[in-house]
Batch of 4 targets.
Target 1
Amino acid sequence: MDDVDKLENYIPSCEVADIIGRDVRTVQKLTKDGTLTCEKKKNKNLYNLYTVVREYCDYVAKLGKKKISSVEEEKALEEVRIKRAKAELAELEMQEL
């Protein structure tokens, strides 16, 4: 397989940015962080289309899980606050009686 066949499904970072709806700097940052993988050809990053989409989807899924867990934590804290308030109210009502 020659280099042309090997790079058939490879795209530059500007196209990756268009596909995922982010800017080129974000693509570069994700690459630097190791989230996205690329091949270097003549000082340019080239991304395998299928691989980069899968990697970005995994990245977004992980972000979603983090948000869900923080929402769950927030919900639990709010439930504790409500229960404490109800307990205080019940105690005040008992003292009043």
Target 2
Amino acid sequence: MIALVCPGQGSQKPGFLSQWLELEGVRDHLEQLSAAADLDLVHYGTEADEETIKDTAIAQPLIVAAGLVTGRLALTALKGQDLILAGHSVGEITACTLAGVLTDEEAMRFIKVRATGMAAASAATPTGMAAVLGGAEADVRAAIEAAGLTAANSNGGGQIVAAGSLDNIATFAQNPPAKARVIPLKVAGAFHTSYMASAQEPLADFAATLSPAQPQFELLSNYDGQALAGGQETLDSLVAQVTRPVRWDLCMQTLGNHQVSRIVEVSPAGTLIGLAKRAMRGTPSTAVNTPAELEELTEALSA
């Protein structure tokens, strides 16, 4: 079994889609996704600077679009393989779409509502996130709660991301848990916490207009790392994900239980493979960031 995984916000880099436009059909696909999101994703993926693509309202649609473009190509290379799909945070929308729950157009319209709502929620209150590296997990979680923060992302490999008010983040960073380091992250807000509640209602309203399909592959939930059984359950989970923590550690635990033979991360790749190298030691991995890396994947599978 091969795991196809999709990264979340913060993985984007300036110009990361440039080489993909050299492939036949990619520009057309990206322009179709741009029309659905009402954003020039060709520009943002090739010419826009780092500061511009950090904007939540741009970053989220860009990451999903990149994942769909490169994920479709990866699925062609992986045809005939036994697959399991998962995505981190906004990448879960990419994974659900590659699994067939939503169409590409529906996914881009969905992410536009999500990104706009989360950007507005972030602007309403000064909040942020900080990575906690090391320490005993129980001690780290207790310290995060005592600081008035939320363990918003549990990424495995000794990494938990705390989220909440900037004041609480600053105080927490000055008083880290035992044997741990606290590193404030350059993000716009406290994602996957109650601070994002105002973004959830419009997303739920939009989701109610969709008719999700059954997943065509096994698809893991960020909520508990378990398989999502049906289309409506998957869509409901995507809406709830806005305010509830991401348990990527549990997703990797499930991938380990399945004894996956390879992890393939779609563009912009690297983050999830990096986490897997610590938590799933010895599992071969492929980052699909360029057409050359996609070709290397095809050759590896043939061998």
Target 3
Amino acid sequence: MSERTREKNTTPEEALARIVARLPAGVRWEEEPRVVRLETALEHADPLRWLSGRIERPRIYWAARDGSLEIAASGMADVVGGMPEPAGILPRGARYYGGIRFDPGRKVDPEWEDFGSARFVLPRFELVREGERTVMACNLVMPGDATRLEEVARAARRVASEPEGGACGVALPEPVFREDLPGAGEWAEDVRRALSTFSAGGLEKVVLARRVSLYSQEDYDPLALLGGLAPVTPGCFRFLFEPGGGVAFVVASPERLFRMEGAEVVSEAVAGTRPRGLSESEDAGLRDELLGSEKDLREHGYVRKSIGEVLGRFCTEVEVAPGPEEFVLAQGRHLRSPIRGSLRAGVSPRDVLEALHPTPAVGGWPRDEAISLIRELEPFDRGWYAGPVGWVGAEDAEFAVGIRSALVRGNEVHLFSGNGIVEGSDPEREWDELEGKLGAFAKVLGFGPSG
């Protein structure tokens, strides 16, 4: 059930005041559990700036790759420790936001404990910009919240009284120390071990990652980091999940895992990488090199085949682009093959997510053998890195792959990047490619190449 007002308010504070005024009398519910959503329109608001002033946790941010949807949210109306099944419960516009660990079977390192194996939150308060429409919303879970309306009203008044922050204008501290795990020597040895596994047969691709940890003398503001990434990561999904406990996961990912709208599902195979050139001629040369690379096309093919086969299990028809296209970003370029399908009746976002993740783009091929080798070689817990992050609504959902990401923890920032290793991979070249994938974070955080 969604209750809306059409009158526009000029500020988020006025919008929240209007919602508070409607709480006692404007809410109707039945006995069965369902979500009531109170919305009021806004003339204009900056979601990220509004969020930076909120003290309630969790804080959540999502921006679609094409700019069609931007949300900022704080507080919690409901939380589930797995993929939610909101059909029949959520009204139009309400969404659960969250993510899932890359490898739920691996032991959780302490810095990831506040995130859980999976966590999805229905926020209490949201500022949503969708197309030309901007709204402030409050979510209530009935009938439980029926006895907490005054408590919700007090929370809304408190949020309204908090000043907006200035996330995009906050200076980030300079790092004073950098740690690479594994280091260049250990990384080269891991790649050689993976290549020897290929020679033995069975495994054809494995994605190995590394963690770059930066330490400063002051705490990092995760929203300032997210705001700084926006202008240098155009065409990327941006996501923040700050559960509390002094940690936050920040993502600026170019890669969609899937989007569902009714019976339609779209996904994409993204694998194969080159940097951008410093001149037009160099850039064109790198493009031609990528499009003609037998190694990169083979690596891309594993991802393309896997996603097509997975969606084929849920769809009446699947359309895979005839060949990879160039996917150009500010900091690099990839091979990409769009994939779409028509879902059979009864297929849920949970069905698709559990079958797709992890794709060969972040795990390897075959899946089980690749995950086993990653557990053996990587000396850190990926946590939500390379896992699905996004949202699920009553009839639609969208998830990005949580790459190009950082875990912010006090005066520490842990950055993650990974590369697909296949027959013919060169350890030194793969290391340099990992550095390139950190380019956006390097610009914002002010650090140089390793060594």
Target 4
Amino acid sequence: MSLFPAGEGRVTVDEAARHTRGADAPAVLLDVREQREWDAGHAPGAVYAPLSGLVAGAALPEAAQARPLVVICRSGQRSQQAAELLAARGAPRVVDVMGGMRAWATAGYPVVDGHGNSGSIA
């Protein structure tokens, strides 16, 4: 059985958290927002790769290479774009999070700033 059901391109924040939290998480939460947004607040353990860099041809950070990816942004639009781009580049399995970091925070999942303190969604 695969990590995500066949044909599923989007997941809820609960599914994203289930697949990406903890030391033995099967997938990587990839945050594609810009630096200011990331610094204000992101999910603990997320890997940062801004969409602007990916569009410009930047490689994925090592922690995200050859791993299933759960892509997140602020609201879900940029993450859809990034997921399509990464799938076209051959990512083994990639989905995006419906509602993005806004939905993540609303659901009560933790958000930390660049210093590990309580963060906010910019």
